[in-house]
Amino acid sequence: MRSLKVRFALLLGGTAIVVVLAAAAALAAIGAAERTVDRTLEAQRRLELLAELSGRLTQFGLAAVETVGNPDNQPEAMAIARDNADRALATVDEALARSFPPSDDPADRMQYAARTRPMAQLRAARAVLDRQVALISRQTDPERRQDAIKGALNGFGAMTGQPLSFLIEAERRSMALGSEQARALSERLRVAAASAVAAALVLLAILYRGVTRPTLARIEEVRRAASAIGRGALDTRLSVATRDELGLLMTNVNRMAARLARRESRVAADRAALEDTVAARTADLRAANARLEAVDQSRRRFFADVSHELRTPLTVILGECDLALRSTSRGGDPGPVFATIKKRAQRLKLRVEDLLRVARSESGEIAFDKRPLGLALVLSEAVDNMASEAARRRVGLTLDPGTRDVECLADREWIRQTVESLIDNALRHAAGLSRVEVALAAEPGPVGRITVTDDGPGFDASEAELFERFRRGKSAGPDETGFGIGLALARWIVEQHGGTIRLGAGPDGRGARVSLDLPALDPAWDAQAAGHAAGGAQVKESAA
């Protein structure tokens, strides 16, 4: 039998059959007991009715004696006694009819006939006595009436005594028989109950040995295997001997253990990879912390430089103002003094503008007014603006506009300021500088490339470090200080225009070169797009 469902179905079916048979046997026993008790009770009831009938017949005989002895009295007592005797006879007949209904059983018919014949004799005795009383009552001689009534009573007693005795004895035997049958039935029920209990115990033992114990043993085996797997013994396997439901369960447990083993191996590999990743990320975090420390040092130096950059021009301005006041009071020429004041104020203004540009770029307050413009004209303006500073430093500043102009969609002022900032960085930070060249070239893409090249010593740090804010390179002298924000701000502006900025070496590997690549406009770019771009956002001016 390969299916537990079939086994348990047979078990339940057999149990149900046993229960049904036990219930049917119990109902049959109960019915037999009820019938036996009913027969006994009916015999007792008939016995009581016969006793009552005997009393009624006795009363009828006494009423007959009284009627014959006193003929002048009203015959009502005789009639009442007669009616009572008739009713008692009818009651006994009805009881007999109920106890012995029409049946094909010969024994029942014989019992009914044996009881109906004595009842007929009792009716006949009552009728005979009634006729005799009527005849005796017509005689006039009292002595003869007395003798006649005595003879009638003796005959009535003889006619009723034997049938009543027979009926009473028959009912007593019926009661005794019912008691014996009840005791025999009780004994049979005890035997049947003991047999049923024994059969049930045997059946339970057979079912336990054949179905329950093997099933429980296999379930216990599955439980132990599951506990072992739960403790981590993933090499645990169950022996599958059958292909029933428990066999399928054991197979699934084996598959689950195998999958868990494979998954554990993958988890171990993932854990090792995760540990490697954590180690790598930890190293990255340490490097980031080191960079943050460097940035923090740069910020502290930045604030020190801000203080120096702002304090030095203000000190010079205040000192020059004092000199101007003294010169004026003495009649001297204040022109050189005011020239110095103007120079220092312009430097202070540039530093403050740098700080404002950085703050606006970080807060997102800068809005670009992008319009189509030629880069050659922008570069020419930047070179012209920085020419005086280059001449003061005795550095040659030249412009190479290329073979043709490049048109871009950009903010004119911000591009110019970016180029000026790159020229200013070259002038201030390149030691031994003799020339700076600003060039424009059209590259495929289309791209407009702006380069600022010098013949100085070149960059002293990596490109990533120099593009960090507040990171400064080497300075040409103690007076050439700055905030270290020029390249960072330049990269931000170029990226906002969709371009790129790169640092490199000059020709033949000497000097430094900064390259700005800006997307050029397509020659097919139409006037409608130009008008739409011209209506863009305007630059937000600071209240300062």
Automatic annotation (TrEMBL):
<feature type="domain" description="Histidine kinase">
    <location>
        <begin position="305"/>
        <end position="522"/>
    </location>
</feature>
<keyword id="KW-0597">Phosphoprotein</keyword>
<keyword id="KW-0812">Transmembrane</keyword>
<dbReference type="Pfam" id="PF02518">
    <property type="entry name" value="HATPase_c"/>
</dbReference>
<feature type="transmembrane region" description="Helical">
    <location>
        <begin position="189"/>
        <end position="208"/>
    </location>
</feature>
<feature type="domain" description="HAMP">
    <location>
        <begin position="213"/>
        <end position="265"/>
    </location>
</feature>
<dbReference type="InterPro" id="IPR036890">
    <property type="entry name" value="HATPase_C_sf"/>
</dbReference>
<dbReference type="GO" id="GO:0000155">
    <property type="term" value="F:phosphorelay sensor kinase activity"/>
</dbReference>
<dbReference type="InterPro" id="IPR004358">
    <property type="entry name" value="Sig_transdc_His_kin-like_C"/>
</dbReference>
<dbReference type="InterPro" id="IPR036097">
    <property type="entry name" value="HisK_dim/P_sf"/>
</dbReference>
<dbReference type="InterPro" id="IPR005467">
    <property type="entry name" value="His_kinase_dom"/>
</dbReference>
<dbReference type="Pfam" id="PF00672">
    <property type="entry name" value="HAMP"/>
</dbReference>
<keyword id="KW-0472">Membrane</keyword>
<dbReference type="InterPro" id="IPR050351">
    <property type="entry name" value="BphY/WalK/GraS-like"/>
</dbReference>
<dbReference type="InterPro" id="IPR003660">
    <property type="entry name" value="HAMP_dom"/>
</dbReference>
<keyword id="KW-0808">Transferase</keyword>
<dbReference type="InterPro" id="IPR003661">
    <property type="entry name" value="HisK_dim/P_dom"/>
</dbReference>
<protein>
    <recommendedName>
        <fullName>histidine kinase</fullName>
        <ecNumber>2.7.13.3</ecNumber>
    </recommendedName>
</protein>
<dbReference type="GO" id="GO:0016020">
    <property type="term" value="C:membrane"/>
</dbReference>
<dbReference type="InterPro" id="IPR003594">
    <property type="entry name" value="HATPase_dom"/>
</dbReference>
<dbReference type="GO" id="GO:0007234">
    <property type="term" value="P:osmosensory signaling via phosphorelay pathway"/>
</dbReference>
<keyword id="KW-1133">Transmembrane helix</keyword>
<dbReference type="GO" id="GO:0000156">
    <property type="term" value="F:phosphorelay response regulator activity"/>
</dbReference>
<keyword id="KW-0418">Kinase</keyword>
<dbReference type="GO" id="GO:0030295">
    <property type="term" value="F:protein kinase activator activity"/>
</dbReference>
<dbReference type="Pfam" id="PF00512">
    <property type="entry name" value="HisKA"/>
</dbReference>
